[in-house]
Amino acid sequence: MSDLDASFQQAQIDVKTLTTKPSNDDLLSLYSLYKQGSNGDVTGKRPGRLDMVNRAKYDAWAKLEGTDQDSAKQSYVDLVDRLLGR
């Protein structure tokens, strides 16, 4: 396992220790960076307009299309560190 993969896994644990809820924009960033880092480019159909939450998640992930997984993992780790005040 690479250092980046280990940091990515640790960030997934660390994010659960946040004492305050991140903003909606930060939550969408966390979600989309995690999905891009874990799965790569977005898959599946875009949810309908009445499913606003899942549509926002899909759109946030779709914006990262073409971003390589290592870059997404590093951005996720950096965002978690920022939210934790490191």
Describe this structure as you would to a colleague.
- The chain contains four helices and no strands.
- It has helices spanning 3-14, 24-39, 52-62, 69-83.
- The relative contact order is 0.21.
- The model has no long low-confidence stretch (mean pLDDT 96).
Q: Poorly predicted ranges (pLDDT <50, ≥5 residues)?
A: none
CA radius of gyration:
13 Å
| First and last CA, distance | 24 Å
Strand content: under 5%
**Secondary-structure class:** mainly alpha
Percent of residues in helical segments?
55-70%
String of helices and strands: HHHH
Largest sheet: none
Quick one: overall form? Answer: flat
Could you provide a short overview of the structure?
The protein is mostly helical and 86 residues long. The protein has helices at residues 3-14, 24-39, 52-62, 69-83. The chain starts with a helix and ends with a helix.
